[in-house]
Amino acid sequence: MTRTRPPQHPLEWYRDPDGRGVDARLHLLDRQMLDQDGVPVSTVDDVELSGVELGAPLDPDARPVVAALLVGAAVLPRIFGGTLPRSRWVRIPWELVVKLHVVIDLRAKADDLDATWVERFVRDDIIARIPGGRHAPE
Predict the structure, then answer these.
(1) Which of 6, 30, 63, 77 has the fewest beta carbons closer than 10 A?
(2) Are strands 40-43 and 46-50 parallel, antiparallel or unpaired?
(3) What is the pLDDT, as a whole number, of residue 80?
(4) CB-CB contact of 47 with 41 (8 Å)
(5) 42: part of which helix (H) or strand (E)?
(6) Mean pLDDT per segment of 10 residues, for the chain of length 138 residues?
(7) Which residues of 93-126 are buried (b: 16+ CB within 10 A; e: fewer)?
(8) What is the DSSP letter of 59?
(9) Rounded to whole angstroms, how far apart are CA atoms 5 and 26?
(10) How far apart are CA 50 and CA 68, in angstroms?
């Protein structure tokens, strides 16, 4: 489908910490996030914007701003259907983003973020109870 006319007020691209333009679908969604030590945190499932009201027309002079990256168990609703409740999304504030490239670098430790609670739960409460699950194999 082709657009019959160009948009009236094209929005400027959002800028990353390095000043480059960011396309949310291309640069953010489904990207792996790494903490300050290079430890995987999660993948980006959604983006939270500020400056946008649901149902209200967009103001071309007040552009939307990325407020947070949202992570959660987005795979489950894709498999089983339905939607993930907003209470299940984990917010990673945009201020923690250091760099966007093949992955998204964060300026926080993975264990300090709520996004890794599932992995910590499985590690500490399930795997650790299996005989030999508390140490690396020899």
Answers:
(1) 6
(2) unpaired
(3) 74
(4) no
(5) strand 40-43
(6) 43 54 81 92 87 80 83 71 76 90 91 78 82 72
(7) ebebbeebeeebbbebebeebebbeeeeeeeeee
(8) P
(9) 24
(10) 9
